[in-house]
Every structure is written in structure tokens, then in C-alpha cells.
Amino acid sequence: MFPKKAHYDLVIVGGGLSGLTAAVSAGENHLDTLIIEKGRTLGGDGNYVEGAMGVDSYLQKQEEIEIDPTQLLQDELNYSHYEANAPHLKKFINQSGAIIDWLHDLGVDFVKVGPQGKSWPTIHTFTGGGQAVIATLLAKVNECGIEIVTSISAQKILQHNGHVSGLMIKNEATGQMRELAADDVILATGGYIDNPELVKKRTPLNSRLLSVSDGKSTGDGMQLAWQAGAEHYQMGAIQYGGGAIFDKTRPPFMHMASQLAAAATQEAILWVNERGDRFVNEDVNDNMCHAGSSILTQARTFSILDQAAVDHLTDVGLYKELGNSPVSPEKLDNLTTEIEHDLKNNEKYLTKADSIADLADKLNLPNLESTIERYNEVASQGKDSDFGKAADYLTPLKKGPYYAVELGVGMACALGGIRVDNDNEVLNSYGYPLEGLYAVGNDAAGMLVGDTYAVTLPGSTAGYAAFSGRNAVMSICKGKR
Ligand SMILES: Cc1cc2nc3c(=O)[nH]c(=O)nc-3n(C[C@H](O)[C@H](O)[C@H](O)COP(=O)(O)OP(=O)(O)OC[C@H]3O[C@@H](n4cnc5c(N)ncnc54)[C@H](O)[C@@H]3O)c2cc1C
Asked: What pLDDT sits at residue 481?
């Protein structure tokens, strides 16, 4: 259904995490607001988030977690090779704790705050996950009387005398188009991870990249902004979720709770490439984005386990923490059952053989035998003089049968393409705002990164979605007063 009225103070394009946050702020500030959402349901990838970044929140104060914001800013600028926009990152860092507190006051509950892998202790984990957050925001939006239309997409930004004047919108069910007038427009369309052509601008397209998004993040916001005169800003970063089971027959999220995936991707088990050569210190998986990048340096990647590793993980316990895997038991006590199940189903990603020679033969990995011989040698020396993996994870492979799990790379979101100012207003290539046009959430989060997602600042995209949605509305309100 098309919107009820022909004109609104504010139209928000996208009803995901950043769009709903912007809408709540608009409701609190009595703006006559409309949300248009191209999907049939609301929440976008916000439905899947685990936690949001914040510094100096009520929860960190309770837990006596202190973070020096200047040190954090410096570290993140270094991590991004200074491609992150310092003033914008600083504003986000400085307001992020207050945003967590604001969400908490709205009724969003947090279980804990802390680090994720080797990172700053910034991720505030939501009770009930992203769906609970979206439900809370949605209830507030409804309470404020904000109109929401679904199955309606934005097709074009309309401008008059250099200022945004509205949007051309489309009814996705009927194909009908209509003009809508608005004083201000916020683009909150979730970035471009589901648009292969745009992903290709950032990273070579590769069949081993597996998107875990809901499929609706097709880069509409950046394309609408570019069409309206925005700068084609750097394509930023793709959030690699590290190694993932390479299965083209079902959506990647189906393996998220798999213990086989946890063993193969998180336990710093031996990884080899398409020739059977080792190529990295496998404990790189402490940073899921670095792990993803390193896997993509090879044509194929296999994680190799022997029966001793399977027995150890099943009966004794983990070699290392499971990092970003949502699976967090102390033992992988379902591992053997999962392996047997997958072998029975002839899953292509899993191969079993009685000997290393047999495994090499089955997968055509000519150097596998010599690689394992060398790996066992460095393991016996207790020092990885080849790639520098921590000694604790140098477990020799000596006891058959042997298993190979083929890995792809999971991707959660893509950030970049639009440059905004400190009010989240979209900029042209001269650095001037396209008046009345704002971008928030993943559409603007390229401002925070270089070529690699800041996994060192965990929860930053969800935290930024909330911060930027609110930031854009505050700026619109300033202009109206
Ligand atoms: C599985 C998964 C887990 C994640 N976990 C975390 C986490 O724990 N912490 C974290 O920080 N980040 C996480 N993320 C990243 C996540 O993308 C963001 O934190 C958050 O969802 C970004 O909010 P957003 O509003 O930019 O995008 P979304 O929440 O995806 O919302 C975008 C919305 O815009 C709509 N839309 C798109 N185009 C149009 C159009 N033309 N017209 C109208 N509507 C349109 C979409 O349908 C969608 O509803 C995760 C992502 C995934 C996929």
C-alpha cells in the first residue's frame, strides 16, 4: 500500500536497525515521519545482530570497564591505515555509550559487555538477540504514531533548487510508481553485500564468498545517492566472518551452530590450499576479517583434522576459545555425530580417508603428505618457525582416519560508497552536502573503516546504525529550529 499522505517532514528509506532508530528519534522530536521498506517484513539484517558497540555505557560503568577513547581512536585509525574518517569516528566513539544507555532506557536489554576475540571490550550483547531489539524499536515507533509502509521501495531522489524535495517510490507488488514529497530523506538501506556487481568493486568476485545477509542489502542507498550527485566514495570494507563451511546447497546460516564448522574454522587446525600447501598461521582466526582475507589469498582451502583432534575436541575440550562462533560449549561433544551424519549424506565439503596419502589422492592435493610431515616436525619442536602460530595449537596429525573440510568465507555486510559529514548528511565530491539527504547505518559506515572491517571494535556496525540514525535526526531537528 502506498503511503497515506503526499508530504512528510521526513522519509526514512529502509526499516532495518538504523532506519527504526532514526524513526524513534524522529518520533521523540515530533517530526511527521514515514518509513518505507522494500521488503515485506521489517528489521533487515538488524534481526540477526548479537550486540552493539559502546564506550562508557551504564553497563561498562557497572562492570568497571574503562576505555581511553583517545587511545581507542588512535588504534582504530592505525588499523584502518588512516582511511577511517577521524572526526566522524571520534563523534561515534564519544556518543556510543550514551546511545547504549538510550537503547536501554527504551527497553532494550543487554546480557553482558566485553571483547570478542582479541578486541576492545565494547560489544554489548542483546538479550534475545536482534529480533528483540527490532521488536522494542518497532513498538516505540508505533507508539509515536509513525507511519510504516512495506513492499515500497525508493527509486529516485527528487531535488528542487539544490535541496531534496522527495522521492520516486515503487509499489513492489504492483510495479506502480508514485512521487512523494519530503523535507528531508534518510537513506538506511543496509549497504551492498547482496549486490555482486558492487561487491566486485571492492573484492574479486569469488564463488567461495558466502553472504549471510537477508538478501535485501543491494546497495540501493548508495546508488540513489550517486544518482542525486553524491561522491562515489571509497568502497570501504566487507565484513568477512572468517572461514565458513563451503556448502553451495544451503544458506550459510544453516551451518552457524555446527560443531564441525567450529572445529574447522575456529580451532586453529591445519589449513592447506588447493595444492596441499600450508599458507598461514591458522590462529589468524582470532580476527575473523583477517582469517577471511587470508583464505581468499588461495584458490581453495581445506581444514585438516586427524582422529586424535576429533577425539580431543569431543572428549577433552577445545584447543582455543571459539572466538566469533556462536557455538560455545567447553567440548564439541556432538562433533562425531555431525561428521557421521555429513558423511552419510555425502556432503561435498567433507572428505574422510584412512591415510594422508589417500586423502591427498581423493582431493588432488599433491603436496599434502610433505606438508603434514613438515607440520608434525614443527609441532614436535613446539615452535612454528614457518608461520608463527602459537605453540598451544601445534597439534601433530598422526592418527587416522583423516578428515578434510573445505572452507569458504562468510560475509555479513559491506560498508562504503557514500561520504557523509559529521551530521550524516551526504556529501558531493567537493565536500558539500546534498541538502536534506542523509545516509546512516551500513550506507554510511564506510566512514569508519579502511579496507578491512574493524572487528577490533566489536559491535561497531550495530552501534553505528543506532548512533547514525539518531545523529541524522538530531541534525535535521537543529535545522528546523
Ligand atoms: C547474520 C548477521 C549478523 C550480524 N551481527 C552483527 C552484530 O552482532 N553486531 C554488529 O555490529 N553488526 C552485525 N551485523 C551487521 C548488520 O548488518 C548491522 O549491524 C545492521 O543490521 C545494520 O543496520 P542497517 O539499518 O544499516 O541495515 P539493515 O538492518 O539490514 O536494514 C536495511 C533495510 O533497508 C531495506 N531496504 C533496502 N533497499 C531499500 C529500498 N530501495 N527501499 C526501501 N527499503 C530498502 C532493507 O530491506 C532492510 O530492511 C550482522 C549482520 C548479519 C548479516
From this structure: 47
